[in-house]
């Protein structure tokens, strides 16, 4: 294995030094929790009896503390395709636990939103803050003190970060995440994209659009494009929180069930030995590995928000400058839709996470010495699992079987990881270059300024955007409306670009892992509602966006001398008013866009 790249070492050392105080306080708290926190031996008889009263055949084993008792925290619902398979997991996992002298109980459930259902709808304003709700729900589930370890059942966008953030407050316990895998491939993603753009232009009707979408999203499992949900799975592998190779095995297969069984057995072993607690697994090096994986595979821009939030829950501080410097050191070695034509099933069959892990380790681009929960060391994640009878074996993945999708480090698609920090008199923002043609990395054009995506769609329908344009959509940040994804804009901006115009998006909102070929400066900080300069832009201002030079600026404009525009009224309806207290206290996107974490840090 190669020596660690000095650029990655330098960023990691900076994160460790920056985090020294907060990480030390976190580890001290976890040490105190391990020694004095709530646990089964410390419960009163009344407390304890409540905890096993309905445990059926496991009742005696839990009562006598015969073996470790594992918490199951589940984000099951059967509306969300990725989480529908979890319905039967708890009963299976209880059987798997008994096989190794352990027990398991469903400790609690968390909400699980589907951004695909709420995309472009009022409910999307709840999406990002659902992560805080999930974290708090996880804490409630684990607060009973009945457990020696925990299995976290979750996959999708805010759900995995939320589970981890909540679980890290119980980081003295060993924990693992257990995925359910992607749905089988349906309609080709490029065809889906083509139909969406035709619909945006009025060239096909709603029936044809629905038929296309239904052929793409057609079964249980995660959506097959490489968005936030599947980027989550990649990160859990590189952080060592899965059984190796668990990420992209389809639901309902014998191998999928065998991997769940292996995870329960492994977790029971860790709990019995009281080793590899979550707080030690999720350290500075694991956070850097997650960021490197994101960059190397062209993953979701949402993780420029989620990784800092997960890190903060463990007392670690990482910022967008760190991402930018890591991106310069890490080549892009995967092209998965929307950055390529194939989906995550194709990616997995080409070598998948095993190949990614191996080639990055061999090039010295990952921390190899991290403590992993799912295996003895990170190198174990460079094998792809298969069944040999009833046993799982891991085959070392020697090479990619599809170089149009997955390449070794020495033959990358791009020399860097494609996530740039752009800064200037408008603020700080993220620009994902990996899906954008290099000739579009610099855009200089007049601004058209809007306060929501519906206004953009109306202007497009009225043929007002047929020109070189930087579409500015502000008041979309955490404090304004919960920072929804602006996925509705992808087809119309793509149409304008295909017509030959120089087009870019600038927003204090999000575009998600589904953002594609149009240049976009997103997550702009400070946001408009927080007196950000983006709130002072006017129609016609010339905006320069340059990923090559890291620029985001209004040309020849003194933004500080202007009055800020009045914000739109706060969102109400669809339960959005219930989240007003979170919007009021949320911090900025670079720090993770969380109200809960800010409040948590205020009390130590």
Q: Concise description?
A:
This protein is of the alpha/beta class and 604 residues long.
In terms of topology, how is this protein built?
Blueprint: H1 6-18, H2 20-36, H3 45-52, H4 59-63, E1 69-74, H5 89-99, E2 103-109, H6 115-118, H7 127-142, E3 149-153, H8 159-167, E4 175-177, H9 189-200, H10 206-216, H11 228-238, H12 254-273, H13 278-281, H14 284-297, H15 303-313, H16 320-329, H17 344-349, H18 352-362, E5 383-388, E6 391-396, E7 419-424, E8 427-432, E9 442-450, H19 453-461, E10 469-473, H20 478-481, H21 489-498, E11 503-507, E12 520-525, E13 542-546, E14 551-554, H22 580-585, H23 595-602
Helix pairs in contact: 1-16, 5-12, 7-8, 8-15, 9-10, 9-21, 11-14, 14-15
């Amino acid at each position: 294995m190669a020596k660690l790249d000095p650029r990655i070492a330098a960023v990691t050392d900076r994160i460790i030094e920056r985090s020294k105080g907060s990480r030390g306080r976190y580890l001290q708290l976890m040490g105190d929790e391990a020694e004095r926190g709530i646990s089964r031996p410390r419960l009163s008889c009344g407390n304890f009896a409540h905890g096993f009263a309905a445990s059926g055949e496991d009742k005696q084993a839990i009562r006598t503390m015969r073996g470790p008792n594992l918490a199951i925290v589940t984000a099951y619902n059967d509306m969300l395709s990725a989480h529908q398979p979890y319905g039967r997991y708890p009963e299976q996992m209880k059987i798997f636990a008994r096989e190794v002298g352990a027990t398991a109980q469903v400790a609690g459930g968390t909400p699980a939103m589907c951004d695909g259902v709420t995309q472009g709808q009022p409910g999307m304003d709840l999406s990002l803050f659902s992560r805080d709700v999930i974290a708090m729900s996880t804490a409630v589930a684990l607060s009973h003190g009945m457990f020696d370890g925990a299995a976290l059942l979750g996959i999708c966008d805010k759900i995995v970060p939320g589970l981890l953030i909540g679980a890290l407050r119980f980081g003295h316990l060993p924990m693992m995440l257990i995925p359910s895998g992607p749905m089988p491939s349906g309609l080709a993603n490029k065809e889906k994209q083509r139909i969406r753009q035709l619909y945006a232009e009025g060239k096909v009707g709603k029936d044809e659009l629905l038929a296309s979408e239904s052929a793409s999203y057609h079964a249980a499992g995660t959506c097959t494009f490489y968005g936030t949900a599947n980027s989550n799975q990649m990160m859990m592998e590189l952080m060592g929180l899965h059984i190796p190779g668990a990420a992209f095995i389809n639901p309902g297969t014998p191998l999928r069930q065998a991997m769940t069984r292996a995870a329960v057995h492994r977790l029971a072993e860790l709990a019995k030995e009281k080793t590899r607690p979550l707080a030690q697994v999720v350290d500075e090096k694991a956070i850097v590995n997650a960021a490197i994986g994101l960059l190397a595979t062209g993953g979701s821009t949402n993780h420029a928000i989620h990784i800092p939030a997960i890190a903060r829950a463990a007392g670690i501080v990482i910022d967008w400058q760190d991402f930018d410097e890591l991106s310069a050191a890490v080549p892009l070695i995967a092209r998965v839709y929307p950055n390529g034509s194939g989906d995550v099933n194709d990616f997995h069959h080409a070598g998948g996470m095993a190949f990614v892990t191996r080639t990055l380790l061999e090039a010295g681009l990952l921390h190899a010495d991290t403590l992993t929960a799912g295996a003895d060391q990170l190198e174990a994640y460079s094998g792809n699992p298969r069944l040999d009878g009833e046993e799982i074996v891991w085959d070392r993945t020697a090479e990619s079987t599809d170089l149009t999708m997955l390449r070794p480090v020495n033959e990358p698609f791009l020399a860097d990881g494609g996530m740039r920090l752009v800064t200037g008199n408008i603020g700080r923002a993220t620009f994902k270059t990996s899906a954008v043609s290099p000739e579009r990395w610099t855009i200089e054009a007049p601004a058209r300024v809007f306060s929501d995506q519906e206004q953009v769609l109306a202007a497009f329908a009225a043929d007002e955007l047929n020109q070189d344009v930087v579409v500015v959509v502000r008041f979309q940040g955490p404090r304004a409306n919960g920072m929804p994804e602006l996925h509705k804009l992808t087809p119309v901006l793509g149409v304008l670009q295909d017509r030959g115009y120089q087009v870019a998006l600038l927003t204090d909102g999000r575009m998600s892992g589904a953002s594609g070929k149009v240049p976009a400066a997103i997550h702009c900080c400070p946001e408009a509602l927080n007196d950000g300069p983006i709130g002072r832009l006017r129609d016609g201002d010339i905006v320069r966006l340059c990923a090559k030079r890291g620029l985001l600026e209004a040309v020849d404009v003194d933004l500080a001398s202007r009055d800020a525009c009045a914000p739109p009224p706060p969102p109400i309806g669809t339960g959005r008013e219930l989240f007003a207290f979170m919007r009021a206290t949320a911090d900025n996107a670079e720090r993770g866009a969380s109200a809960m974490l800010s409040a948590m840090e205020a009390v130590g």
